[in-house]
Amino acid sequence: MKKQKLVVVGNGMAGIRAVEELLKLAPDLYDITVFGSEPHPNYNRILLSPVLAGEMTIQDIILNPLQWYADHDITLYTGKTITKIDRVKRTVSTSDGFEETYDRLLLATGSTPFIPPIPGKDLPGVISYRDIRDTDEMISAASDYQHAVVIGGGLLGLEAANGLALRGMNVTVVHLAPWLMERQLDRVAAGMLQKSLEAKGLNFLLEKSTEALIRGEAGRVSAIRFKDGLEIPADLVVVAAGIRPNTTLAESAKLYCNKGIVVNDTMQTYDPRIYAVGECVAHRGIAYGLVAPLFEQAKVCANHLANFGIARYTGSVTSTKLKVTGIDLFSAGNFMGGEGTDEIVLNDPSGGVYKKLVLKNDTLVGAVLYGDTADGAWYFQMVREAKNVNEIRDHLMFGQSAVGDVGHAGESKAASLPDTAEVCGCNGVCKGTIVKAIKSQGLFTLDEVRKHTKASSSCGSCTGLVEQILASTVGGAYTPAQSKDKAVCGCTDHSHGTVRAAIRERHFLTIAQVMKEMEWKTPNGCASCRPALNYYLISTWPGEAKDDPQSRFINERAHANIQKDGTYSVVPRMWGGLTTPAELRAIADVAEKYQVPTVKMTGGARVDLLGIKKDDLPKVWADLGQAGMVSGHAYGKSIRTVKTCVGAEHCRFGTQKSMSMGVQLEEMLFGMWSPHKVKLAVSGCPRNCAEAGIKDVGVIGVDSGYEIYVAGNGGIKTEVAQFLCKVKTDEEVKEYSGAFLQLYREEGFYLERTCHYVERVGLDHVKAAVLGDAGKRRELYERLLFALQDYEDPWTEAVAKPAVRREYQTIVLKEVSGVTA
Amino acid sequence: MSAWNRVCALDEIAPLGSRVVASHHGDIAIFRTDRDTVFALHDKCPHKGGPLSQGIVHGDTVTCPLHGWKLGLADGQAVAPDKGCSKPFAVKIDGGEVWLRLD
Asked: What is this model's ipTM?
């Protein structure tokens, strides 16, 4: 069959992104032809500011080199402007008579700078700031002239001004409004911004209206005169007074336009064969000028061009970052407030920090951050998801502590970091490396940065910092990932929540069934989705779904903890941390017999035997099993340990028998698989020697009973556990904490610790389920006990069953020498 | 050209699983896909030497258990943007048995 013809008018970021998305979905559907007015392949327009500032070159910001077009059989015409569409004959043509036919047409004509009708606007030396040509002109003006005036104190104007100043010009920014960036900032934040920019040498004239641009003797602009009579020298005037959707071509073809080319939610114009994306478009009355919405549009458009027909674009909430090195600034949503809104404000002028959160009916509707933007992505996500923040209202201002506590020297302000600062302590990635990768590889998402630099790909502690670096490097193009709807992995578009719900509602029992019914894109998933699916299946349908060892990470498959040299560590279970001389003797014997190089106590206060060869594992277990010891699960997404203090059994301060309580809990939870590891602690009094305040479930004995705390974490991000309830008896401790853990097991997403789970669903939800209804709590608790009832110690199993034992055996080859035919 | 060496019965490798073979080249990982094809790679990730045999097999790829690098089973090449290679060995199934050639 002959391919259909797709013609793209506009070789910019939106149009080419749509083509890229289309190629991912349907690489062979169309013969694609692209027309671009500029003589360049698609480049990253957002990075013109760093080019102007001398931090990058044009070559650095090319997103799709000519070879890319060739590799995908795309016919590219640069320097050719389409001036006419014949919708009846289905052709586009240029003014010099070049013609091309189409079956489907994609308009991505972008925007044009708005030039106010000022006398002198056509003089040499008066330019706008839109493309490579403008940038080149500014760079050359900076070497020949001294005085620059930028008309417009918006995002683009300030970046231009900053760049020109860095190139040594004396720059004045003229702005009509009473403060800078009035569409993105409130007055206070704008004032702080102005001060920082003044410190960088920029001059500002606010509330100034331009009367005329004055022609100098050489014919070039020489000065600017304002309506109040003031006149200042100007050898270069950059007009950055806003942009207008470029609808000239669409209008000439009689396509319906209103503030832009009008499209529906599928990005289709009023002519069904013609689609439009990008800055030229008006969707539900809004024309977007930032890149993130354009990318969303491109994705939807590609879905329809590929005849998938299922995506809808429903509009975007935008956020803003100013790309001026050293200035941390963020705004999103309705940051000005007004009728029916509340504002929470933190203002520290000498500290250089200002934060304003705007709330309406218990949802966050906007935010302005200046000086400390660490939580920008978090706030932005809440604005977009219209999440109810009633529960966290009192500490909303203090942020999410999006940045972990350790691994990056306590830094939380990305913009002020030097390039040499280590951002990712796990993988040793510096800020400069990240910025360089973002710029040179054209990265726009956190996932891409992780893949290319490895930053924040291990423990994730520095994620917030990497997001900030990304945001400050690509500005408006950055879209924080939406955790709620984020796909499980590249094998599917479904989120964890959707997959969990489908497994429950449709009673899926095998991984193959989930992948088939939910249309997985890969034959058998990947190392990210398979363990998640396996967990969801066995936790949702205990006794029915069969565990799949090949879908478990090696630790859970081998029931030991893999070490960097490929050996394993073995941690025998010691219930509640109690042991006996006989057990210790057995451990000592094993350590000697198998020449265990390292013996140490784990963080959970158990004995760790490190450096055991995989082949020896079953033998080690058999020996330990002789002494009555079983697997300590120190390797799994499972119950780890219940740490205890001495408690009332011996301690003179103890109020409750914490050792016995700990043993009961650990025995109850033996063999419990969970979304992530689960650690408990029981302390016998509020002195809390067992450190129950940073555990997934922490139990603290008081004279009148026990207090139960949940969702604590002592890891990357130290999280203090939150008070759940107070109970009287040991049996109640088991029931309440068991019910909480079962709720987490049923609702948690794979690799989500209890602290993240509770943050996502809210403590009120947990309280309603566990405390609100005794019947429900009982059911949760019973489901937990049911799931755990038949659990077999994996060590015993591995020792007893030859088929399982095989996993541990190395095959020794009887090597045949000699030559075969 | 060296000879084919019998490794084990195909049944002794789980589908989407692997076994380790000790040889004079060092450890070699033999992988079995869900389509019952087999592949052999030097059991050492080019990144930090992780034992690939302990990774999760998916499609014609294995993910290293240490830091999640993905390597193609057929050619041992790391999946972009990572760069590196683990040496592949010739392996075949004949009469339900797995055979390996050590070149």
From this structure: 0.95
